[in-house]
Each structure stands twice: as C-alpha cells, then as structure tokens.
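F.,

This is the one I mentioned.
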C-alpha cells in the first residue's frame, strides 16, 4: 500500500510540474514591463509630452479664426429726431405757406399787385407742384435715414501670423522638446527599477530553490543518521541520548523543509504579481536548478563601464531640467522685448453701412501690423528674469549634488561586489572543508571510531557551510545587479 501511495504522490507532483510554465529571466522581464501600471503611466506621459511638443511647433504657423455674433436691441439708432421725422414730409407745405404769405404781401403793392393778379393763375400750379416735390423729398430723406439697427450681425474671418515674439516661441519649443526627452528618461528610470525588482525576485527564487534542495538533502542525511543510530542503540554501541539528539535534528530538518517550501511559494506569488499574472499561476524558472548561473558574470564585466553620466536617466533628466530653467530665463527676458504680428481678415456686417443703410450683409477686408512695446513695468520683468536665473542655479546645483551621490553609490556598489566576491570564494573553500569533514565523520561513525555527537556536528557544519555558500552566491549576484543599475547599464 505504501508503495502505491508513493507512486501516486510522485505522479501528482509530476503532473503539477508538467502543467507549470517555464519562465526565463527575459520572459519575466517582458511580462513585468508589459503589465506594470507605473510603466504604462510613464508611457502615457511620453505620449502627452510628444503631443505637447507638436502643439508648441504650431506657434510658428499662422492662426486663422472665425468669429460671429448677433444682437437684437429694443430700440434702433435714429439720426433724426421725432420732430424732424414729422416735419420733413411736410416741408413743401411750409414752403407753400410761406410763398402764399409773400404773395399776399406783394398783392398789396400798388404797382406789383396788378401784375401778380394776372400771373396768379399761372403761378398757383407751379407752387403746388413744388410743394408736392418738397414733401416727397422730405419723406424720402426720412425713409433713407431710417436705420432699423435693432437686428445686427457680424462675421469675421481673421488671420494672425507672428513675426517676432521676443524669442518666446523658440523657447517654448525647446522647453517642449526637453520635456519630451525628460519623459523618456522617466520611462527609462521606471523600466530599470522594474528590471531590478524582477531580477532580485527571480534570483532569490533560484537561491531559495537551492536552499530547498539543501534542506531536503540535510533531511535525508539526518534520517540516514537516525537509522544508523537506532541500529547502533540496538547493538549497544550508542546511547538513547544519542538517539534523542538525532531525532531533535530530524524534527528541525522537517520544519526547515516546510519553512523553505512556504517561503518559495510566497516568492513565486510575488514574482507573478510583479509580472502582472495570476498569483496562483504555477511557475517554474529556467534557472531554478542552476545555481551556478547566478555567478556566471565576472566582476570586470560590470566595473569596466565608465559612461554612467550618459547612462543614468536621473542625470540626463536633471541636466534637461537645468536647460528648461535656462529657457525659462529667455521667456522672462522676452517679456521685455517688443512683439510684432501680421494680421489680415475679411468681415461681413449687417446692416450695411457702405452704401447707406442696407439690411443685408456687406463685406470688407483688412490688413494690418500689430506692434506691442513694453514701456513702464516698474521692474516687473527684471525681477522675473532674476528669479528665473535663481531657479536655473538651483537646478544646476541639484544636478551637481545628484552626480556626487551617484559617484558615491557606484563606489559603494563596487566595494559591495568585491566583498561579495571574496566572501563567495571563502564560502567555496569552507564548503570543500565541510564536505570532507562530513565524509570523514560518516566513515568514522560506521567504523565506530567517532561518536554520534561528532557526526551530528559535522552534518550541522556541512549545512551551515552550504547555506552560507548559497547566501554568498545570491549576495554576489544581487551586488552585480545593483552595480549595473548604478552604472545605468542594466538591460
């Protein structure tokens, strides 16, 4: 029955392992970079900066706008008073009345009276005709000056072409370009941080897998020792105390195996979370059983690169920030410069005013030059220039400070890598000694020349040496990753 149970468990484990996807380091990086939210936001910021730069360039080009408006008022504009409107249509009547008064006076004249009486028949039709003509002319004038401006509308199509803006447009375009480059630097920085996080978790899983294998090997050693000691107790060459001490070690080995399995499971869930996949996804790493791959790169490979000033996105971003503030100086200085713009357009108006008052759209075009010259600002623009220069100095100091800190970080990372390398070499030597001591202890125990406690101590020492070697290997690998990150060459 035990045999069949063992076969069933082995089959289930094999099936679980077969269903698990094998992840290489490059695959883990690719998934993390594809699914990381911070990186997606940095990518969106890149796109925003790109379109901002495109928008800034359009300031060089002419702008065309259309404006329209309509207004209805309760009263119209009148060029004649109400009294004039009433008087002008009867102006002929007034003239006729005046002519009649003058004629009546002349009729009383002793000499002219008889003559006018003879002409009265002829003059009367002429006066009446003139009266009608004057009345008609007055009414026509009133009608012609009736504006009816209660309903008014205007449409204007205007073009504006900047000629000289004091350097503002050029400075804005440079700032937009620098902002786009800074967004790319921010993306690179986020990308490197993600790669570091993935690499650390990946190699920690590899190291913990090695510790799991070590714990299982130690568990087997202790179980074998326990069997040997039980046989020795039965033969009377070992005491029950020896058996109890070995059982304690066996229990500790069982607990260690459980702990390392739990830790390995949690680490794999963390890696899944970083990659943006389901945390319950079965994961098998390509290097999981290849601990030596952690130390495959040499110290010289990551210490030879000296172009970190160009490789570190933080340095590039701070350098561009200083340049942005320098361009802001030019913007502040441009406030004191005159600006020149060319304008042109066409307008449609109603009521029309170019051929009397016409209730229809009439148009006209216009061309002009707009010049603006600041005269008195009470030092406002000078203060702005000085403030911008102070901000530029701050940005340059930040760049200098960051450069010094990164130099220190690189030096510390190099020292850590060298120390990790030396510690790894020492642990490798210690493992060789522990392996030999364990071999001698097992032979001595079998021959009966070494007590159980010494064999137990040799196994414990072997476990400690192997554990220290794994820790040194992972420390060496992580030190190399951190140095590569400090140099800006982690890809």
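My design for it:
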């Amino acid at each position: 029955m035990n045999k069949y149970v063992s076969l069933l468990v082995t089959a289930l484990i094999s099936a679980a392992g077969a269903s698990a996807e094998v992840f290489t380091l490059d695959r883990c990086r690719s998934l993390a970079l594809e699914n990381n939210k911070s990186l997606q936001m940095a990518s969106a910021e890149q796109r925003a900066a790109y379109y901002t730069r495109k928008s800034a360039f359009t300031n060089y080009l002419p702008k065309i706008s259309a404006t329209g408006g309509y207004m209805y008022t309760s009263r119209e504009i009148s060029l004649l008073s109400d009294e004039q409107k009433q008087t002008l249509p009867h102006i002929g009547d007034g003239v006729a009345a005046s002519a009649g008064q003058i004629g009546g006076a002349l009729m009383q004249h002793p000499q002219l009276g008889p003559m006018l009486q003879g002409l009265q028949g002829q003059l009367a039709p002429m006066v009446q005709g003139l009266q009608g003509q004057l009345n008609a002319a007055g009414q026509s004038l009133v009608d012609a000056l009736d504006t009816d401006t209660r309903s008014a509308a205007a449409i204007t199509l205007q073009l504006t072409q900047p000629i000289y803006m004091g350097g503002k447009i050029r400075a804005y375009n440079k700032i937009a370009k620098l902002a786009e480059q800074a967004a790319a630097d921010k993306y690179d920085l986020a990308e490197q941080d993600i790669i570091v996080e993935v690499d650390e978790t990946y190699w920690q899983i590899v190291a913990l897998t090695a510790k799991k294998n070590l714990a299982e090997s130690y568990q087997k050693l202790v179980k074998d020792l326990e069997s040997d000691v039980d046989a020795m107790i039965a033969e009377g060459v070992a005491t029950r105390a020896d058996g109890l001490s070995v059982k304690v070690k066996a229990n500790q080995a069982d607990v260690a195996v459980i702990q390392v399995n739990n830790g390995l499971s949690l680490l794999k869930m963390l890696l899944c979370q970083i990659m943006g996949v389901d945390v319950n996804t079965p994961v098998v790493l390509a290097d999981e059983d290849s601990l030596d791959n952690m130390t495959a790169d040499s110290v010289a490979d990551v210490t030879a690169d000296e172009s970190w000033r160009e490789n570190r996105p933080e340095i590039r971003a701070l350098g561009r920030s200083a340049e942005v503030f320098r361009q802001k100086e030019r913007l502040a200085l441009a406030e004191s410069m005159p600006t020149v713009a060319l304008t042109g357009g066409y307008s449609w108006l109603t009521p029309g005013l170019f051929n009397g008052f016409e209730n229809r759209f009439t148009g006209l075009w216009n061309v002009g030059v707009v010049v603006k010259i600041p005269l008195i600002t009470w030092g406002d623009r000078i203060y702005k220039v000085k403030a911008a220069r102070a901000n530029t100095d701050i940005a340059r100091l930040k760049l200098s400070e960051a450069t010094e800190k990164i130099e220190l970080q690189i030096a510390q990372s190099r020292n850590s890598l060298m120390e990790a390398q030396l510690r790894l070499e020492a642990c490798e030597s210690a493992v060789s000694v522990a392996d030999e001591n364990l071999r001698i202890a097992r032979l001595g125990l079998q021959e009966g020349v070494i007590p159980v406690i010494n064999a137990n101590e040799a196994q414990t020492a072997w476990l400690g040496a192997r554990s220290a070697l794994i820790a040194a290997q992972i420390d060496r690998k992580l030190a190399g990753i951190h140095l590569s990150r400090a140099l800006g060459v982690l890809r």
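DSSP finds 13 helices and six strands in the chain.

Talk soon.
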